[in-house]
Amino acid sequence: MTDDDARPGGKGITSVTTTLPRRRRRPRRPLLVKGVPTQEYERGQLPPTERLVITKRARLRDVAAPGWRRWTSHAAIAWALGYGSLRIYWTLGTAPSPPPSGADLVALTGWWSVALAGAAALVVLGLRRARWWLPLAVAAWGVSVALVAASALLLLDVVGIILPGLGLTVHPVAFLSRVAWLAGGVLVGATALSYQRHWRGACLACGSTGEAGRPARPPRWARVAAWVAVAGWLVRVLAQIVVGFGNDLLQAGGSLLLFEAGFLLAGTVLPLALVYRWGRVFPGWVPLLAGRSVPRWLVLAPALGIAVGMTAYFGVSAVQFSVETLTGEWEQGAGSLPLWFFWVAMPAYLVWGLGLGAAALAYRRATRPLCRTCGC
């Protein structure tokens, strides 16, 4: 063997170099998100019905939410800091103590109210910065429900303002405090709703995903909820018939008669108007309005207001009454109703409120106009 034979490429030994083809990297499929504006796409640049193609989902703080939803998270944080500071001042000093409970809030008073305001600020900050996390969403909704429940006495204030002849005393400071507490619950709930819609790819304005159309008629569960509300009202009336009305109706003034008329309409006409056609179109026997569309907020506003107020007030009252009864702390005052009446009336009110609220949500969905953001 010569030196030429030993060298690579010589006559004796042949060296072969093989170049393997490189594996092509498959391009990553972009994430398709419907109706979620990002930093790459400014709002209004594309038609509302087109799908925006992005490679990374933006945080809620970086999304240009439509309308008033763009400032709800900032307002919630400002509310928590401002009103939380006021609760600290009241806890260290003298808090308002209006009748009948001696406090402006229900259950969550003192340092508990301060802690709840701090929790509201923390969950809102988390909703703005975090990715989708189910425990965070559940915590945010829990804080919102707690804030609304703590302002349950606002229902008596509203009734006392509308019907001053009923004798319900309205304390101005306590009334404003409950309104502020309710506003905080609404702000936290609105932020949680935007967070939930954003991470499931729904429209931030209406929550539509474009998959389900608008129902031609109310769903079956809505009709059931409406009749459940009527049943709750009927149980409450039957319980009152059993114990008697006393001389209140005979000596009733104008305010009490108006209250009883509203009580009757809210328990019979209002729930059924949410699920039947005459709640959307005036029937033929209505003069001057026959065949015209019923303004949706004429039915929806009282339904949602009464449902939220009754559910919050009687839900909290039922829990307190149950605890006081089971622990033996409940005392029957002179001339008050028997114990069994409260066990029947409070659950009846609660069922009434829940059924009315469910039917109102179905009515809102069925009568909602086309969304200006997504067109659905």
Provide structural commentary.
- This protein is mainly alpha-helical and 376 residues long.
- The chain folds into 3 domains: 28-58, no CATH class; 67-199, no CATH class; 220-329 and 339-367, no CATH class.
- The chain is built from 11 helices and 2 strands, in the order αββαααααααααα.
- The protein has helices at 3-6, 72-92, 111-129, 134-150, 154-162, 172-199, 220-243, 254-267, 269-273, 296-327, 339-367, and strands spanning 31-34, 51-54.
- Strands 1-2 form a two-stranded antiparallel sheet.
Q: What's the β-strand tally?
A: 2
Describe the largest sheet: 2 strands, antiparallel
Largest beta sheet: strand ordering: 1-2
Computed CA radius of gyration, to the nearest angstrom: 30 Å
| Secondary-structure element pattern, one letter each | HEEHHHHHHHHHH
Structural class: mainly alpha
Strand-residue proportion = under 5%
The number of domains = 3
Question: Poorly predicted ranges (pLDDT <50, ≥5 residues)?
Answer: 1-21, 27-55
